[in-house]
Amino acid sequence: MLGLNGTPFQPATLQLTGIPGLQTGQAWVALIFCILYLISVVGNLSILTLVVQEPALHQPMYYFLSMLSLNDLGVSFSTLPTVLATFCFNYRHVAFDACLVQMFFIHTFSFMESGILLAMSFDRFVAICDPLRYAAVLTNSRILAMGLGILAKSFATLFPFPFLVKRLPFCKGNVLHHSYCLHPDLMKVACGDIQVNNIYGLFVVVFTYGIDSTFILLSYTLILRAVLAIASWEQRLKALNTCMSHICAVLAFYVPIIAVSMIHRFWKSAPAVVHVMMSNVYLFVPPMLNPIIYSVKTKEIRRGILKIFFKSQC
To answer: Which Pfam families match (predicted)?
Structure first.
């Protein structure tokens, strides 16, 4: 796109895209997204309300779960405006600056989720490997410090992104490939030297996903070693069962990320719909699945839900 003086410039608006090839089924796609949002918002709000109201859940594990639920709400609300506008109202334009703001929040909450999952793995490590010092190690002040540290790290590492994009001219059109704004998507329509963006983007991914996933794996290696040292088979299963919810949450978060990376790297000729669908899975599935996983796999959460349900029936 060219300005009055013939030089590339930033467009006033960017055009969002739905799901390629499904133009005739937009109503069904809109319904699916609305259901996903409903499950995510209701589920995560229920977890937060339950932890606040139930004194029995005022424990480190559930404080971290509250952080995860709060972050999942942030992910959902970050994509909500443009996704609903695209699929429900067929309004596909977003202001350039609004797109940068959305991009910042989507990526910030995504990277925060990785940090929270790492904190939760540390919680499980202390609970199994050093249970007698669990309450002394994971005090309320330390949990708060960990949460603020995750927020500060994600905010600081993602803060340069909007400015790195803002400096670029856009000469390859203004059509994005998703119904929301992502940094890699914006790079496809930008021109000029995007090497700094790509290098910094790689640094952020390694600094967050790479380091976090490595320490999560290390935590579970130490947990597994401690569990195998337990003589009773029944006690081994009981110890591992306390980790199952977190393991499922980690898989729900990292498997789509790995799948998206593998497709982009090794299947560049994949249809556009494959890339779009995998990106949607990466953003929409974890916030929806996490409250379901913890409700099904955690006895205390199930008890709290049943208690509130039966109380409301009286």
So the answer is: 7tm_4
The encoded tokens of residue 45 equal 């709000």
**Helix, strand, or coil (residue 21):** coil
Three-state DSSP state, 93: strand
pLDDT tens figures, 90-107? 888 999 999 999 999 999
Q: What are the beta bridge partners of residue 186?
A: none
Per the CB < 8 A criterion, the answer to whether 101 and 162 are in contact is yes
DSSP category for residue 177: S
What's residue 90's pLDDT? 83
Exposure on the CB side of residue 115, measured as CA atoms within 13 A: 25
pLDDT one-digit tens code per residue, 130-163: 999 999 999 999 999 999 999 999 999 999 999 9
Compute the distance between CA of residue 85 and CA of residue 152 in angstroms, rounded to an integer. Answer: 31
Query: What pLDDT sits at residue 9?
Result: 74
Half-sphere exposure of 120 (CA within 13 A, CB side): 26
In 3D space, the residue among 267, 188, 238, 244 whose CA is nearest the CA of residue 61 turns out to be: 244
Written in H, E and C, the secondary structure of 118-173 is HHHHHHHHHHHHCHHHHHHHCCHHHHHHHHHHHHHHHHHHHCHHHHHHHCCCECCC
Which helix or strand (DSSP H or E) is residue 54 part of?
none
Burial 160-193 (b: 16+ CB within 10 A, else e): ebbebbeebbbeeebebbbbbbbbebbbebbeee
Query: pTM of the entire structure?
Result: 0.91
SS3 label, residue 88: helix
- In this prediction, residue 232 carries a pLDDT of 84
